[in-house]
Every structure is written in C-alpha cells, then in structure tokens.
Amino acid sequence: MRSGKSGYVPYEGLTVALSIEATEWEAAGLGDVSAMAHGVFAATAGRIGLPEDLQSEIAVTLADDETVRAANAEWRGKDRPTNILSFPMANLAPGDRPGPLCGDLLLAFQTVQREAHAEGKRLADHVRHLLVHGFLHLMGFDHIDEAEAEAMETLEIAILADLGIADPYRECLENPPKPVMMAD
User: Fold this and answer.
1) N or C: which end of the chain has fewer CB within 10 A?
2) CA triplet 168, 56, 101: central angle to 5 degrees?
C-alpha cells in the first residue's frame, strides 16, 4: 500500500484490528487480510473525502455463520447468518469524521464463500466488496430507502473500480446465481 519513492502510506493512521475466529478463513488463500482491509479502507476513505491524517481503528472479525447468526439475532432480531454486520462506535452521518474507534465489522465465512461461488466471483474480490460495504455503514451510509441504496451502490462500484474490481452488481445480472447443492 505504498506509493511513490518516499514510502508514504495513504491513511497510515487508519488501523485494522484483525481477529480470525474461524479457521476456514486462514485456509481460504486470501493472503494478508489485514493489509487487504487497510487497502480497502484507505480507498474508501479517499473516495468519500476523509482527511488523510485520519486516526481511527476498525476491528474486523472473521467468523463463521453461527457466530454471525447469533449476533444478527441479538442485535438485529434476525435469527439467520448474513455476510457482514457493521457495528459503528458512533452514529455518524456521511461526511462526518470518525473518532479514534470507528467500529467493528463481523464477516461470516460460509455465507461469504457461498455467495462468491454462487455469483461466480473470486472470494478475495467479494471480501473486498463486503469490507467496502461495511466501512460505508460505519461511516453513516445506508440503504434503507431506494435513493440511499442507489447512492451507496454507486459509491461501492466507484471504490471497487479504484481497487480494480468489476462492478459486482452488474456481474450479478450477467452471471445469475448458480444453484448451490446442499448435502443431505
């Protein structure tokens, strides 16, 4: 994540506290997930206009479906796993500067892997997309109504393009989900 000859690291004060709670993540071939997350957060911060001297921490927990299901049930009243949950430390509006602790992101391995496979996406690209999505939630963006959803999706597409990742929503339309075979 270095640019130029000076060794400058964009958003160096934006730190990632990574916790791997499900061993499947370690075997997934994603490489240095902390560096991946920092690159995603730096690209997102730059795109939404946060100052480069930002000092804030984002906790990323790589968990399994059961852990995320339990958190989803407790905090959102939805007793099922989801791909990512975002827990902001403060209720920000888009454009607000976060404090020293931005928030927590919780990802569910089985759901993320299943979605990537069904949509014909590389797992690493899908994880990057979810990290962008989760960070935007921490920064006050949402998709509750149609206008918010369209604005957030447009922003996600631009950030992912900055990262060299194709439009994930277009990909879904061009490559409809493949059936997932469930074991008996």
Assistant:
1) C
2) 100
